[in-house]
Specification:
About 35% of the residues lie in helices and about 15% in strands. With about 250 residues, it is an alpha/beta fold. It has two domains: about 1-180, 3 Solenoid (UDP N-Acetylglucosamine Acyltransferase, domain 1); about 200-245, no CATH class. The longest helix has 23 residues, at about 1-25.
Length: about 250
């Protein structure tokens, strides 16, 4: 009976994973569930993980690790059998995704290729990130250590995150800086990485503006033969249509 319950749970979780792929992947529009199940590498990796995780919880030796190793070879996605993953995870493309042993992932999370949920140092115990529900993590982002990524957060592509992330915020940069987009929550797993705020560019822009002010003050106090003000071009935020269609 316990084996049947585990099988039923895995089947339910995989069904949610397939629905998540169909809802969040533009390439899956008009594609049937069977085709997604048989041709999406992220679904293959999750299916293998869920089987390996059930075997790990049942105390099965060796086999869960063998399944994980085989799946990594087949899909390029490495998920430790002991990681805890909720329902509705969508791994887009997936090559290079690594999910560590003590990672916790909530429901309806989206990961793009190259994401790492990794540990730091050689500490034992909890050493990988906790990702709460409805989080989107961009391509190449690295989340390291036992940090917590709050509900609804968005991690920009190639960000390196080593501290906790507040709920409903957006993180960009290396190291990651929590920011807001237009002062409001960003809804859904969109891929609009072009229009994310850039705190470094904003800091440079503020310094440029200050330089202009100081040079104007110096020019007013200097003789008439003072050098003209240097041209400082203000940085502009990226404009244009949202590539994610939002």
């Amino acid at each position: 009976m316990a084996g049947f319950d585990a099988f039923a749970r895995v089947a339910k979780e995989v069904r949610r994973d397939v629905l998540a792929a169909r809802d969040r992947d533009p390439a899956a529009r008009g594609v049937g569930r069977i085709e997604i199940l048989t041709t999406w590498p992220g679904i293959h990796a999750l299916l293998a993980y869920r089987v390996a995780h059930a075997l790990q919880q049942a105390g099965m030796p060796l086999l869960p690790r063998l399944i994980s190793m085989f799946t990594r070879t087949l899909t390029g996605i490495e998920i430790h059998p002991s990681a805890r993953i909720g329902e509705g995870l969508f791994i887009d493309h997936g090559t290079g995704v690594v999910i560590g042993e003590t990672a916790d992932i909530g429901n309806d999370v989206t990961l793009y290729q190259g994401v790492t949920l990794g540990g730091t140092g050689f500490a034992t115990g909890k050493r990988h990130p906790t990702v709460q529900d409805n989080v989107t993590i961009g391509s190449g982002a690295k989340l390291l250590g036992p940090i917590t990524v709050g509900h609804g957060a968005k991690i920009g592509a190639n960000s390196v995150v080593i501290t906790d992330v507040p709920p409903n915020s957006t993180v960009v940069g290396n190291p990651g800086h929590p920011v807001r987009v237009d002062g409001r929550r960003v809804e859904g797993p969109d891929a609009d990485w072009i229009h994310l705020p850039d705190p470094i560019a904003e800091a440079i822009q503020a310094l440029s503006s200050r330089i202009v002010t100081l040079e104007r003050m110096l020019a007013e106090q200097a003789d008439g033969d003072a050098q003209p003000l240097a041209e400082v071009r203000p940085l502009r935020t990226v404009k244009g249509p949202n590539p994610a269609g939002g």
